[in-house]
Amino acid sequence: MTKTLVVGLDGASWELLDPWIEAGELPNLAALRDTGTWAGTRSCLPPVTFPNWKCYSSGKDPGGFGVFWFENVDLAAGEITVMNGGDYDTAELWDYLNDEGQSAGVVNMPTMYPPRDIDDLVVAGGPDAVEGEYRSISSGYTSPPELAEELESRFDYSVHPDPLLSSNDERGAEVDAILDLLEKRFEVATTLLDERDLDFVHVTLFYLNVLHHFFWDDEPSLRAWELVDKWVGRLDDREELNLVLMSDHGCDATQTEFYINEWLAENGYQVRDTSVDAVLTRIGLDRENLLAVAKRAGLVDTLARVVPESIQQLVPQRDGVKRDRKLEAIDLEQTEVVASGQGPVYINPRFDVESVRESLMADLREVEDEHGPLFTDVYRGEDVYSGPYVDAGPEVVVDQRPGVHVNDGIGGGTVQSGPDRWAAENTPYGIFAASGPDFEPQGELDRISILDIAPTLLAAHGCAVPTDMRGEVLPVFAEDPAVGERDPLSIADALGSDDGDAVEDRLKQLGYME
């Protein structure tokens, strides 16, 4: 059987890469497209790391596994909780490979912290594998746990770069640290593939998209892509390897920053309460300023050790409070609507949900800037999601126009502005490319769904496709795999025990259950 290496390129888009390919800057990517199969992809909404890496690996949209963004919003309970890998209720493509007796490794995968067991190995990745606001994680990011020591001793491996990139002005050591991390991701993935004789390895280059956000198509991003291109050339030369490139979403130059919760307050959908964050914001005390001062003084690690996380979180970001602190800044009894960033919008069940939704969707469709409507469409949640968790999801989902960043900060005071910290914003339009013995060169395909990738990879390994995967097997094979369908695995099945008590204990250890 042919081995497969999937390289996950966070935030990659042909819109960014095409000019460099045409200019001859990325010759190996150009050659891969010329001799293989490639396409643009469509992500699930919202087009962001959480949830789209899991959309890829599970073949389901967020309604199928219960995570719709980095946070879970429960307005009935008056709670917003930050999500992690233990909150996804789904088996993934490596679980099905294992179930068919095949070996798999997953390296630097977002959405997988805390790491859970598969038959071979998992290395969790950013952004969720993090201990605190200012400090990178130092342990507990691998399964089996002892793998971390091996990676660190052999490769000087780390989950996050040091120093951490935090502004558009940092083009020296911060960029070099990211490039070093990307190099090590490739080294680790290929070494594990070969030394452990794995059938399948996935590796994600998460910090690639951090460079996109801060620099878009400027020199730091090009340097990273030249590194990727070098590795693509090496890997595509391996005769007995299926090489797949894909991204969780795309990116495009930011035109407009839209502060959706500020807009909701201005338009009567949200009522504010006084919070300490509002006071700190008014006097210019925000997290970005403090982090910049701490970095200049060389005190980042010291502050991380001596300042409790609860105190760190009290300092607002420049564009307002976010995540679980948003509800502290509003009067929930009088608030009809609260939004997450980049798409999901939640209606307070204390009100007439259908009436509020009808007026809200009409109002959002009217929001414009000098380039036109901010949203390519505004959807009911049930029209874009399917599966057992639709009712837990947002009532409204906006599809932000390429170039629009929907920011969920509360308290910044601005509704619309030009680009702020991010030079590029996520879009739903990512990339896919495949080359290798099991794939028939097809040239460019019509745009595919991110949900098609997992069924296609399973078919490449001769595995039946679970009936709850919503994607299709792509027509990219030299021979028809004719793999058929199978019953899905539950997450308990994926953890590998028939003992109900043991499964429950393991789920609790991994954070899947309280």
Describe the structure.
GO terms for molecular function: hydrolase activity. The protein is an alpha/beta fold and 514 residues long. The chain contains 18 helices and 27 strands. The protein folds into 3 domains: 3-253 and 424-510, Alkaline Phosphatase, subunit A (3-Layer(aba) Sandwich), CATH 3.40.720.10; 255-272 and 330-418, 2-Layer Sandwich (Gyrase A, domain 2); 275-319, no CATH class. Strands 1, 2, 5, 6, 7, 8, 9, 23, 24 and 25 form a 10-stranded mixed sheet that branches. It has a 4-stranded antiparallel sheet with strand order 13-14-18-17. A 3-stranded mixed sheet has the order 19-11-21. Strand 13 and strand 14 (344-347) form a beta hairpin. Helix 6 (173-195) packs parallel to helix 8 (219-236) and helix 7 runs antiparallel to helix 8 (219-236).
Structural topology:
Blueprint: E1 3-9, H1 14-22, H2 27-35, E2 37-42, H3 49-58, E3 71-74, E4 79-82, H4 93-99, E5 104-109, E6 121-124, E7 142-143, H5 147-155, H6 173-195, E8 200-205, H7 207-215, H8 219-236, E9 241-246, E10 250-253, E11 256-259, H9 260-266, H10 276-282, H11 287-296, H12 300-306, H13 309-312, E12 320-321, E13 337-339, E14 344-347, H14 353-365, E15 368-369, E16 372-373, E17 375-380, H15 381-384, E18 396-400, E19 404-407, E20 410-411, E21 416-417, E22 424-427, E23 429-435, E24 443-444, E25 448-449, H16 453-460, E26 465-466, E27 485-486, H17 491-495, H18 500-510
Parallel strand pairs: 1-8, 1-9, 2-24, 2-25, 5-6, 5-8, 11-19, 26-27
Antiparallel strand pairs: 2-23, 3-4, 6-7, 9-23, 10-22, 11-21, 12-20, 13-14, 14-18, 15-16, 17-18
Helix pairs in contact: 2-8, 6-8, 7-8
